[in-house]
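Q: Can I see a sequence and its folded structure?
A: Here is a first one.
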Amino acid sequence: ILNYDIMARFRRRTCIILLLFILFICSIMMALKTLRPDRAGFGDPFGLGLLPELQQRTVLLDSKQNSLNRAQGDAVTHVSNLHSIAVNTMKASMSPVKKLEEELSSPNYNFHIFYYTWYGNPQFDGKYIHWNHPLLPHWDPKIANNYPKGRHNPPEDIGANFYPELGSYSSKDPAVIEAHMKQMRSASTGVIVLSWYPPGMADENGEPTDDLVPVVLDYAHKYNLKVAFHIEPYKDRDDRSMYHNVKYIIDKYGSHPAFYRHKTSTGRLLPMFYVYDSYVTIPEIWANLLTVSGSQSIRNTPYDSLFIALLVEERHKHDIHRSGFDGMYTYFATNGFSYGSSHHNWASLKAFCDSNNLMFIPSVGPGYIDTSIRPWNNHNTRNRVNGKYYETAFSAALLVRPEIISITSFNEWHEGTQIEKAVPKRTGQTVYLDYKPHKPNVYLELTQKWSEKYRKEQEQWLM
C-alpha cells in the first residue's frame, strides 16, 4: 500500500511537471511568433487609412478655402501668439542650454523619427482633434456589422490603445512641443521627420498645421535637433504641385538653423523629403520632377533635394528607380505586413539600392496596435514584448548597415507605434495598455541605447 501511494504521488507530480513544461513551451512559441510573425502578403488587408487603393486617406480643402480662411482667422492669430510666447520663453531659458547639452545624449543625425502635430484640445484649439478619432468600418459590410461604430470621447476615451503621459494634449501647446523635443533628444535621435500638408490642407480627421512649423523649428533648434519634412498624400499631388511644395518649404523654412540638410557622398548638402504613399503616383509623373530631363525637373536648381519614396511591395523598387527618387524607406512598424516592412527582405533591398546608387532607410518600430480605431484589425497587432520587438527591429536594421535608420514613430498614437512616454490608465470600461513593468521612458532609453550601438558599429563599417 505504501509503495502504491508513493507511485501515485510520483505520477501526479510527473503529470503536473509535464503540464507546466508544455505551458512554458507554448508561451515561448507565442513570444517568438510575436517577434517574428509569419510572412504576410501585401494582399492581406491592413486598414483603410493605410492602403490608398482602398480609400484615399487625405482631403483637399479647396472648395471651402475662402470660408475656411475666415473661420481660421482667430486660429492663425492664436498660433502667431503661441510662436511669440515660444520665442520669448526660449529667450528667457537660453542660459540653461549649456547645462541641458551636458545632461542629454548627443543627437544622432542618422536616426530619423516620424513626428505628428495633428493633435488638438479645447484649451488650445477650441475642440478635440484626432484624440476623438472615429472608429473606421471594415470595407466588407458583413464584417463591419460585427464591430462598434462612432467616435472616441476625450479626454478619458481617446483614439489610442495607450495613454500619453501628457494627456490628450494639443500640438500647439509650446510646453508640449518642448517636452517632445526634450524626449526626442534624450533618445539620441537627431532628425524629426515632420508630417506635412500644404497650407490649407490636412488629413480627413485633422486641420491644417503648416502655421505650426516655425514653432517646431525653433524648439528643435533649442535642443540641437534638425527637421525634415514628410510630405503626406494630399489630393491631386503630382509633379507640378510637388515642385511648388518643395519651393515653398525651402523658401520659407530653408534658412532656419534647424532645417535639415543631408551631406551626400559627393559632399553636397541637400534638403531631404520623405514622400508618403509615393507609389500612388505613376513613375512617369515623378520622372517629370525628379530626373534631369523631366519637364518639371527640380534637378540642378536651387531646390534640388533628396527625395525618399515609400516602398511597400517588392515591385515598387523598380518604380522608385525609374521615377528618379534618391532612396526608399519602409515606414510600417509591422514586421510581416508588407514586403518592405518585413525584416527578412531588408538585405535584398539594401543590395538593390547599393547597385542602383539609392539610399535604403529601414523603418523600425516598438510594436503595432490600432484596434482603438480599426477594431477589426487584430491580426496586424505586434506585441511589444517589453521592448524585445523594438530591439529585434533595430538588430535587423543594423545587419544591413544603412546610412540612416528611421523610427516609426514618436507619437502616432492611433497605430500604437509611439515611443513617447505613456502611463497606465483605467477608465470605466477601458484599460489602456502601458509600458509596465518598465517606466514611461523605456522606449526613449532603448532608442538611446541603439543609437549608441549604431554609432559604434558604423565606425567599424567605415574602417
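Q: Show me another, different protein.
A: A second, unrelated one:
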Amino acid sequence: PYYVDMNQNLFLQASLHSSDQNLMVFVDTCVASPNSSDFRTVVYELTKSGCASDPSYALFPSPRSDVARFGFSAFSFVSRSPLVFLRCELLVCRYQDFSSRCHQGCVSRVKRNADS
C-alpha cells in the first residue's frame, strides 16, 4: 500500500515495456473502489474513454510515447474503509497511426434522439 493524506496530489506513471519502439500508451479509463476485488458495486470514476470525470484528474506531458503520466487528488469513500484501490485500462496503439484510439484523446459519446 501507498499511504497519502486526503487531497494530496498523487502522480502516476504507466510504462510500456516492449522492444517495438513504434508503440504508444494511452490512459483510457480509471476507476477507484473501496474493494480490491469488486470494481462494479461501489466505484468512483476518475476518467472514462479518455475524458476526465474527476475535476482533479489530469494528464501530464511524457518524455516518450510509451509512457503515460497522470494524477489526481487523494480521496476516500464515505463510511467505508480508508483504503482506495485503483484500476486503470490502458490502450496500446501504433505511434504513427493517427486514426487510432490513442490519438483521438477524449471521446465523449453524444446521445442521439430516438425520433424516427
